[in-house]
Design goal:
20 strands; 4 domains; three-stranded antiparallel sheet; alpha/beta
Length: 546
């Protein structure tokens, strides 16, 4: 495929406005910090995103970090124009988008603390991958971090068969949208037609499962084309779509003076998440961390990798241990709830916590129990570890020791930090570590103000919005109608009147067990309840500003 044709495919079917929490400077900087680095402050940093598309990732970052500077680069003129329009609408002054081919970039674009290349490495030809690594070296600040994602073997071997079949089926079709439809048709046909009782057994079952995953994804994509139709076309059907073993990409980075730091998903680098016998065997087989993680990819049949790189000269702490200095550096948040209401913090009984994705962490340590309960009640807010310790110590130690020992009990402090690290190592859904607390409120004011970023996304008809924690959300029922009016000018009475007018026009349809609700008094009562319910929810998902 020529450059012109590739550009045209993005003009015809541009990427949606998508944000990726794992690429945010806060996530990258936090991981670098616990690995012993001293990254630039998140609130005052320089960020480069290569392959920024329409800016769906970098623009929300710039909105949330007004004192940091951002540059996004993409080779599609149409996507850059769309992104610049968003920047102008939002009135942002700290982000620029530039249309350019990666091959044309030179060192004079500047030095950056964080360089992001999500969805670039596997989807570009070899010269571009080479230049990408050069940029990650030449333009990276001394304590900077680069993020690169790519399709990974061994898991991509089977996924690649899906791509090969779709490429064959669409080989004579030029128009991107027509190729997309035909590829989806093939997936649907295959998913319905493969016989799971065939004699090939285990392999065919795995193949059928993959077909069904693709089919369900594409069914959802058809329902929501504006957001998701780009995925199959650009991620699976582009002419260039290569996969690599983890060690190959690390070796490529090494040739350019870069070293592997950690997986963007910290839990996937942690051998402690494997069974003890398995972990011991892998350790015996591995001469270094690169070999160890490659074997873990083999074990998990990994098909996608998101890695962080830093300069080879950096002294990386590979043995991550809880450090008391974290009290002044890190914040913590958690949605994990205790599985029982019968809680005694001060005794040594084991208390189990469960996250929204059913991950679990158990502890008998009184300070840790108190800390996790406090974080759950404060969610989604992040609390500095120093403040967290101060808050929970008073309720954990007895009165006699509270005044003298709670600030000097280093053993309890280290146990708390170790437990928070262990929970984070299992799953970020259990405990989230951060370098800063984004500016948002969980309580709606008299005249609620929602994120301008999210309001703009709703105004543009996006099905999902980006919150102030850089997460993408599906909106709760009625939230999409309420959100545009949360501009800091309307109180609850004004908002209720607006909702009633929308219901009168038929924009909002209310139903109960008997069908559509038409009685004015009942509509008023329902909308009054729904307004409060939605304002509460919008606060709890970090969409409200102070």
């Amino acid at each position: 495929m020529t450059v012109d044709r590739l550009q045209q495919s993005y003009e015809d079917v541009p990427y949606a406005h998508l944000s990726y929490p794992q690429t945010h400077p806060d996530r990258l900087g936090m991981l670098a910090t616990i690995m012993g680095m001293q990254p630039a402050p998140v609130t005052d940093c320089r960020v480069l995103e290569l392959g920024c598309a329409v800016g769906g990732n970098i623009i929300p970052m710039a909105y949330g970090l007004p004192e940091s500077r951002f540059l996004g680069i993409d080779f599609s003129p149409g996507q850059i124009r769309a992104g610049q329009n968003a920047i102008d609408c939002l009135g942002l002054k700290n982000v620029n988008l530039m249309q350019a081919d990666i091959l044309s970039l030179r060192k004079n674009i500047g030095e950056f603390d964080y360089i992001i290349a999500h969805g670039v490495y596997s989807w570009t030809p070899e010269p571009v991958r080479e230049r990408l690594m050069e940029i990650c070296k030449e333009n990276l600040a001394p304590d900077g971090i680069s993020y690169i994602s790519f399709n990974a073997y061994p898991g991509w071997h089977m996924q690649g068969t899906m791509r090969d079949m779709m490429m064959y089926h669409t080989r004579h079709i030029e128009k991107p949208r027509d190729r997309l439809e035909k590829a989806q048709d093939l997936i649907g046909f295959m998913a319905k037609s493969v016989n799971v009782n065939d004699k090939y057994g285990v392999f065919l079952n795995a193949y059928t499962n993959l077909l069904n995953v693709y089919n369900q994804f594409d069914i959802q994509r058809r329902r929501n084309k504006q957001e998701d139709e780009f995925g199959l076309l650009h991620d699976d059907l582009e002419e260039v779509n290569d996969a690599f073993y983890f060690h190959e990409v690390v070796e490529h980075a090494s040739r350019h003076g870069l070293q592997y730091l950690i997986n963007a998903d910290f839990s996937k680098s942690m051998i402690s998440n494997l069974e003890q016998k398995t972990a011991e065997t892998l350790l015996n087989m591995s001469k270094d961390v690169i070999a160890l993680e490659q074997y873990m990819d083999f074990l998990r049949n990994n098909n996608f990798r998101q890695i962080l790189l830093c300069h080879k000269e950096i002294d990386v702490n590979r043995l991550v241990k809880a450090d008391e200095s974290w009290l002044s550096k890190l914040y913590a948040a958690s949605h994990a709830r205790p599985v029982t209401d019968k809680i005694n913090i001060q005794d040594r009984s084991i208390l189990k916590f469960q996250s929204t994705d059913n991950s679990e962490f158990s502890t008998d340590h009184p300070v840790t129990k108190a800390a996790l309960i406090y974080l759950f009640r404060s969610a989604p807010k992040s609390i500095s570890l120093a403040e967290l310790l101060d808050e929970v110590a008073q309720g954990t130690y007895d009165k006699e020791s509270a005044s003298s020992d709670r600030n000097t009990n280093k053993n309890d402090i280290l146990i708390l930090l170790k437990n928070l690290l262990n929970a984070f190592s299992i799953n970020i859904a259990l405990v989230e570590l951060r370098l800063y607390e984004p500016a948002y409120t969980i309580t709606a004011s008299e005249r609620p103000l929602a994120s301008r970023m999210a309001r703009w996304q709703v105004e543009k008809g996006f099905a999902r919005v980006t919150n102030l924690r850089h997460e993408m959300l599906d909106l709760l029922h009625l939230s999409e109608f309420i959100l545009p009016y949360l501009n800091g000018e309307n109180d609850r009475n004004a908002l209720l009147k607006i909702m009633q007018e929308l219901a009168h026009k038929g924009t909002i349809t209310l139903t109960d067990k008997n069908g559509p609700v038409t009685d004015a008094g009942t509509i008023h009562k329902i909308l009054e309840q729904e307004l409060e319910k939605n304002l509460l929810w919008l606060g709890r998902v970090a969409l409200l500003e102070e």
